[in-house]
Amino acid sequence: MSAASIRAATPDDVDAIFALMYELAEFEKLTHLFTATKEGVQDALFGARASTEALVVEQDGEVVGYALFFHNFSTFLGKRGLYLEDLYVRPALRGSGLGTTMLKKLAELAVER
């Protein structure tokens, strides 16, 4: 198994992200509430008025996890922040540190921005 890499999602990742989103719904036993579409995910991430961003983690050329996040604003602090909506890593890779590494990358991104 090669080293994993974390990077910003691209439009080519939408199918993989969508599949992982459905896996998350299955894991949480909430597929009956899952009404997202690939087109909606594509638009939210890369459309003219994109409202969210994602990081993906790749292992051996395959996307095996994602973090979906967006900017928020705290009225009490008067500051922007990043809100993490989903963090998902395939079950076979849990415990490998990939989730922690993604969280660290998001924290760096939040500080940078």
Summary of the model, kept short:
With 113 residues, this protein is an alpha+beta fold.
Query: How far apart are the termini?
Result: 33 Å
Stretches with pLDDT under 50, minimum 5 residues:
none
- Which homologous superfamily in CATH is the superfamily? Gcn5-related N-acetyltransferase (GNAT)
On the 0-100 scale, what is the average pLDDT? 95
**What is the number of beta strands?**
4
Give, in spatial order, the strands making up the sheet with the most strands: 1-2-3-4
Tell me what portion of residues adopts beta-strand conformation: 25-35%
The rounded Rg comes to 14 Å
Question: How many distinct folded domains?
Answer: 1
- The CATH topology name reads Aminopeptidase
Q: Can you write the helix and strand succession as a string?
A: EHHEEEH
What would CATH call the class? Answer: Alpha Beta
What is the approximate shape? globular
Individual helix count? 3
CATH architectural group: 3-Layer(aba) Sandwich
Helix content: 25-40%
The class by helix and strand makeup works out as: alpha+beta
Largest sheet: 4 strands, antiparallel
List the helices and strands and how they pair.
Blueprint: E1 5-8, H1 14-27, H2 38-46, E2 53-59, E3 62-74, E4 79-89, H3 98-112
Antiparallel strand pairs: 1-2, 2-3, 3-4
Description:
By secondary structure, the protein is an alpha+beta fold. It has a single domain, classed as Gcn5-related N-acetyltransferase (GNAT) (Aminopeptidase), CATH 3.40.630.30. Helix content is 34%, strand content 31%. The protein has 3 helices and 4 strands; from the N terminus they run E-H-H-E-E-E-H. Strands 1-2-3-4 form a 4-stranded antiparallel beta sheet, with helices on both faces. A hairpin with a 2-residue loop joins strand 2 and strand 3 (62-74). The chain is globular. 16% of the residues are buried.
